[in-house]
Write a structure and sequence with these properties.
7-stranded mixed beta sheet, 6-stranded mixed beta sheet, 7 helices, about 30% helix, globular
Length: about 280
């Protein structure tokens, strides 16, 4: 575990997403959860040794399976954006783990077993302030990467947990993204109030403003390529022709290629339906 500011820690040792811990007088505030059963047990043991009360608060930064599968097993009060709460209400109470093709981390692991969801106890629309001591923890809706995407902002420590808003050397998840909103969110992150902030990516650990700019440029390239295809009413299968160029300068793996392939195709299908006025 790495301390990045007074009473603020991140953990990147587990598969899936970057985990966060905020130590407050009232207890621990957790950012996301591991998805693998052994990692969940290990993480809970680490948290127990940190002390900080008997009922931690768990914040999910968006609805992605990688960060929500393990939430129930963490046995915490769960806080999410209202869009995440709605998606979770629409999911079956339980589902069997099976191999999918979205390029998510959890798909690569056997032994997860049956997945059971629990509804969050607290949800919000635009923002929420948590006062577990004199220093607020701010939850802000920042749309773009996924339904219910939020930031967790610690003004006193100058820390921002960004979720999947910024990823480094790996492709973004595009299947449920809103590129226009995502680009606006990144432009906002590059404004002066955040210039000296400690930025935590939901999958890449600490990132810099230079990496934020790279993410912005990357998404603008994708948006331009999709726009050109929409003008031609190209078939969804043509998105595969974009992959080679978009995988340059990234850590290559079959998983990442599958993530990009799946995300591009699904994003384009949604955009094409919207252009055609389909319901």
């Amino acid at each position: 575990m790495q301390q990045i500011a007074p009473e603020v820690y991140i953990e990147t040792a587990y598969e899936g997403v970057t985990l966060g811990v905020i130590h407050r007088k009232h207890g621990l505030i957790l950012i996301d959860a591991p998805f693998y059963p052994e990692d969940i047990r290990s993480w809970r043991s680490v948290l127990m040794n940190m002390g900080g009360g008997v009922n931690p608060l768990l914040i999910n930064l968006d609805v992605h399976y990688d960060r929500t599968i393990g939430s129930r097993a963490m046995d915490c009060t769960i806080v999410v954006h209202e869009d995440v709460a709605q998606v979770l209400r629409d999911r079956p109470i339980s589902m069997k783990s099976q191999y999918l093709v979205t390029g998510s981390e959890w798909e690569m692991y056997e032994g997860i077993g049956s997945i059971r969801w629990s509804l969050p106890e607290i949800s919000f629309s635009d923002s929420l302030q948590i006062y577990w001591d004199d220093h607020p923890v701010l939850l802000e809706y920042r749309p773009g990467p996924a339904p219910g995407a939020i930031w967790v902002v610690l003004p006193e420590q100058g820390v921002i947990f960004l979720g999947d808003c910024v990823l480094y050397r790996q492709p973004p998840f595009l299947a449920e993204a809103n590129l226009t909103a995502w680009i606006q969110t990144l432009n906002h992150l590059l404004t002066s109030p955040y210039r000296d902030s400690i930025l935590v990516s939901g999958r890449s650990g600490l990132v810099t403003l230079a990496i934020v700019r790279e993410q912005l440029d990357y998404l603008e390239r994708i948006q331009a390529k999709i726009s050109e295809m929409l003008k031609r009413r190209a078939s969804p299968g043509e998105t595969e022709g974009l992959i080679a160029d978009l995988m340059l300068k990234m850590k290559y793996s079959d998983q990442y290629m599958q993530r990009l392939q799946h995300g591009l195709k699904q994003y384009y299908i949604r955009a094409l339906h919207a252009l055609n006025g389909d319901a």
